[in-house]
Amino acid sequence: MITIGPEILVVTYHYLLGSTFTGPGVIPFGPERFSAQVEFLARSSHFLSLEDLSSGVLADSGGYRRYTLLTFDDGLAEQFEVAWPILRSRGIPGAFFPCTAPLNTGKLLHVHRMHALRSNMPDKDLLALLGELSIKAGFEESSRVIGGENFTEAPYPYDTPEARTIKSLLNYTLPIPEREALSEMAFRQILGEEALWAKKLYMGSEMLCELSSRGCLGTHTHLHRPLSRLDREGIRREIVESLDILEKTTGRRPDSLSYPYGNHLAVSGEVFEVASECGLKCGFTTERRHGRIHSDRLSLPRFDAEDIPLGKRPVIDL
Prior knowledge:
This protein is of the alpha/beta class. Helices cover 45% and strands 10% of the residues.
């Protein structure tokens, strides 16, 4: 009889408070639900660390039904302020994946500019504004795509059609330099300068150093770009630049990566190959399923926190 051993459950969180951007563009999980979900998972889980996974050999699960790793994407300060004390009080490692561009530029990432904008205006109005800005900037490709219907529709099953359209366009379809310039122009026009927003939103060097010293820090790349949309050298640059910055900031070079967006439109075999070439030992996608002890460590699947019990749309029963 073949035994496959305990499953590996990886759960990902983003906003826990949502205090920087308030509105429909951001849906925080909430401290109370986070604490309750951790308590629920602790009943049936042997919690893992990044070091456990990168070692290649997992310790005995101690009779628990599953191994569980809790992950946090984007490097948001509220993750450190809310989740980290709860994890530390329970002796749970956790894994935090920051993007590094804000450390260098003092600016928001494109993805967070869009969250802020969508929290401050209806999607149809934002799309119209981006169309106007693309014409003024001479972005012919972007203005053509925004004004048409022929674009890649991304897997956002829980969003409204309007939300799905704007997220698909701005995350995957528009040329990357143009989309980032458009979100910067739109943010400046609607919300003003972004430096103060970025300072409040992201972890600083002291937070990152503490997480690194505990073996809880990976990378989410430099600029949060969909890696499979880049050429091979672009993929490498996104990964290596982030690793270099985190090593310079914390004194330790991470060996784990959470792929931005993480779905089939953002990762590929080439992305996994380059990650390995960059010295990474673990990589996390957003494919919603369990992993296994012998799963490829560079393409580990994850569930969103809303997809498991105590989430708003559980798709599995633990």
